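Lab notebook, design round three. We kept the backbone fixed and only want residue identities now. Task for the bench partner: fill in a sequence for the structure below.
Input structure tokens:
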């Protein structure tokens, strides 16, 4: 099977806010990828992925990644998250600048 692009964009995010970045309602295994090259000293961000365990069930957190300051490995990739009922991805700006832009994509298999 080949990876399929679900969504992509380049965004900056509001300070001290949680933003829903993207989502999908299909059944697939999803990976969220973000380029954190723009991070600087004092920046701190979190990405979370949410999915229901069963169709129609409560939507709960499946994965969280948090990064701070300049990144030596700026390509961040979530582990594959399998879902039969879709996925939602959020970005939280915890500290630092809000002027940086971050390219991201959600892919599925």
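Proposed sequence:
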């Amino acid at each position: 099977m080949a990876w399929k692009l679900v969504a992509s964009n380049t965004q900056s995010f509001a300070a001290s806010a949680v933003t829903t970045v993207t989502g999908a309602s299909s059944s697939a295994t999803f990976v969220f990828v973000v380029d954190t090259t723009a991070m600087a000293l004092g920046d701190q961000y979190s990405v979370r992925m949410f999915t229901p365990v069963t169709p129609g069930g409560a939507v709960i957190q499946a994965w969280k990644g948090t990064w701070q300051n300049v990144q030596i490995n700026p390509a961040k990739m979530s582990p594959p998250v399998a879902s039969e009922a879709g996925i939602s991805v959020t970005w939280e700006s915890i500290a630092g600048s809000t002027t940086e832009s971050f390219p991201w994509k959600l892919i599925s298999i």
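Keep this in mind before ordering anything: The radius of gyration is 14 Å.
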